[in-house]
Amino acid sequence: MGSSKNNNSQNIPPGPRTIPILGNLHIMDWKRPYKSMIKLSKEYGPVFHLQMGCQEMVVLTGYETVKEALVNKAEAFAERPIVPVFEDYAKGFGIAFAHGENWRQMQRFSISALQDFGMGKRIVEDRIPEECSILTKAFETYEGKPFDPATILRAAAANIIVSFLLGKRFEYEDATLLRLVELIEENVHLAGTPAVLVYNVFPKLGFLLGARRKIMNNQKEFHDFIWATFLENLKQSDENNQRTFIDAFLVRQKEGKSKKKLQERLEFVPTNVPRATTKDITFKGFFIPKGVYILPLLTSVLHDESQWEKSHEFYPEHFLDSEGKFVKRDAFMPFSAGQRVCAGETIAKMELFLFFTNLLQRFAFQPPSGTSKDDLDLTPVLGFTTHPMPYKTCAVLSRSGKKKQKS
């Protein structure tokens, strides 16, 4: 697509000058590339061109630009690019990494199944509140002493998905659940490491990189569990009594007489990934060819200073009006937007709301003794997603929590 600021004269997005082989890799923060991209957007604008090794991409930053692409021109930005580590992992199947018709079929089915089993059904009416109750009791066992809540919270969230998929839940200390969560967490971490970035831009070096091998080993272990569970459900499947997502999938598979490999279409991965253009398009005055790797930088939307009064602070008033009532903000896009928006967004939001409100009604959260605000590190862990560094908290029963405990 070109390699310098002079790209404007060719009607393609501007971008920093490249060097042979590396492209723009020499100017990137390899641990947190999004930071480098935000800096570049201030120089080249909200639509700019990057070259990562041999991989050319167009980066989109800021709420207005990302919304214009993902929502207003959703069809043109609905494809997935070929990213080596994701192709190795999912082989073009599943939901998050699928291409073309494979994705359209699975997306339609997933949304339909989520509505059938989720909205207004037992997974929402019973299972999320039930998990909330179990979660608060788990916090109570620490009796106000310091603990790291991450494992418990991940297990609770995983149980909602597991109940939807398998019709059951695991105890938080269950070895199988802990191992599955560990596999996912490790792959999410590895997918954001410099070693995997190197593999994605120079895939021929993959045989030298331990991170890529570890991701594939984890994927196989996770896949083997899903496949064994699938076979067990196959034995008990009753099309007149669809209890789980897998039951619904089996019935739909039978109706559609699809020849696709079942186990590969049942991949689930909790990450957001780049887009690719489905056709040639002129966007914001720039020409972008079909098949170009598009990176809508969601962090630039969530911290867009034109949309948020205090864009880098925890400020609940962002979502409240002058009377203290909730206000929906379109620039809040943690689940992405458009045709590739997270299929489980509605259930995830409900789960987050119920977990959060139940915990705050029950407990007052305090830092461990001797810890000050200055000790709080909000730098995210290195990975494909941005979750917090390990930390400890004290969940002390509040006055209302003590009343509930007595009752």
State the helical fraction: 40-55%
Distance between the termini: 67 Å
What is the gyration radius calculated from CA atoms? 23 Å
Could you tell me the number of beta strands?
8
What class do helices, strands and sheet pairing give?
A: alpha+beta
Elements, N to C (H/E): HEEHHHHHHHHHHEEEEHHEEH
Determine the strand fraction and express it as a percent band: 5-15%
Largest sheet: 4 strands, mixed
Shape: globular
Q: What average pLDDT do the residues reach?
A: 83
Strand order of the largest sheet: 1-2-6-3
Summarize the structure.
This protein has helices at 33-44, 63-72, 84-90, 100-117, 122-140, 150-166, 175-190, 194-201, 210-236, 245-256, 262-265, 298-302, 345-362, 399-406, and strands at residues 47-52, 55-60, 275-276, 281-283, 286-288, 293-296, 363-366, 394-397. The protein is of the alpha+beta class and 407 residues long. β1 (47-52) and β2 (55-60) form a beta hairpin.
How would you describe what is shown here?
It is a single chain. With 407 residues, the protein is an alpha+beta fold. It has 14 helices and eight strands. The chain has a four-stranded mixed β-sheet with strand order 1-2-6-3. The protein starts with 32 loop residues before the first helix and ends with a helix. The relative contact order is 0.16.
